[in-house]
Design goal:
single chain, 6-stranded mixed β-sheet
């Protein structure tokens, strides 16, 4: 319990964060066009009905909260579709869950999120890298409960032996809390990079979202429109870029909607910006798979 409490209380304390005169990524101006794009998105590849987005990263990164945040933005009201835990010591998500977001009665959006057990320190804790690789290839059935001590094998109940393109992951998104960027252990970096390499070999595009930016930057607490004006947060993006090799334009900053009881335009704009890019890159992958 002491280690959990330590994680709750210990936070990297950022220095005063000067603001840039202009945001280094413009999201507010594109809010409406991004919303229209997301609402109207349909995969061109007729082999699939939904584009599949897999979220992965360390325990407590905010993967489930991001799914809820997207649902909140699209509904215009708070949502809690994906169960999230405010007190974490080990992964709260243990099953391979597919989340379809409701667009209107009887209709869903043409993309789904897959939430997955988080990475943890140690070889027998958290999701196994090999299981994430199996998920990329569509071999993990929806509802499978991950076993940190045993890789999913062919013949197991949760193993899908004949995945279709619909079952496979179309874009991989790494989720990292901002306060962890400078403190990622070599072991955690290796796990994330191993999954990244496997996705690259499969041609799956990759993005990253850095979460909990409001907890790290006072200027974002004051005004969420400052997310992409913060020099401190810009530096965190550059550090993460150097750690994992992801291009800077593939790393996004978000504040999850886990405190507001009403939608916030600054928060929503950043989330929609990241979501649109996920759909765009995933769509490119699907087009390449057309036969």
């Amino acid at each position: 319990m002491g280690s959990i409490l330590f994680k709750m209380l210990w936070r990297e304390v950022p220095p005063p964060s000067p603001l840039l005169e202009e945001p280094w990524r413009k999201v507010s101006e594109e809010y409406q066009s991004n919303l229209v794009f997301v609402n109207s998105y349909q995969p061109e590849n007729k082999q699939v009905t939904h584009l599949r987005i897999l979220l992965h990263g360390p325990v407590g990164a905010g993967k489930s909260s991001f799914i809820n945040s997207v649902d909140t933005v699209l509904k215009g009201r708070p949502s809690s579709r994906a169960a999230a835990d405010a007190i974490f010591g080990s992964s709260f998500t243990r099953k391979y869950n597919t989340f379809k977001l409701t667009k209107s009665p009887g209709a869903t959006y043409s993309f789904v999120f897959n939430d997955i057990m988080g990475f943890e320190q140690g070889s027998d804790r958290g999701v196994l890298v090999e299981d994430v690789k199996l998920a990329l290839r569509g071999h993990v059935k929806d509802g499978y409960t991950f076993n940190p001590k045993k890789v999913l094998m062919k013949g197991d109940d949760g193993y899908n032996p004949d995945p279709t393109l619909e079952d496979k992951v179309h874009i991989l998104v790494c989720v990292i809390p901002v306060d962890l960027v400078s403190r990622l252990s070599d072991e955690m970096v290796k796990k994330i990079r191993d999954v990244r390499l496997a996705a690259s070999e499969l041609g799956i595009p990759q993005l990253a979202i850095i979460t909990k930016v409001d907890e790290a930057c006072p200027e974002v607490i004051k005004d969420t429109n400052n997310i992409y004006k913060s020099k401190y947060l810009e530096e965190k993006v550059k550090i993460f870029h150097q750690l994992l090799g992801l291009p800077l334009n593939c790393i996004f900053l978000v504040k999850n909607n886990n405190q507001e009881i009403e939608s916030n335009d600054g928060v929503s704009a950043a989330i929609l910006c990241a979501l649109k890019q996920m759909l765009t890159y995933g769509e490119d992958f699907l087009i390449d798979q057309e036969t």
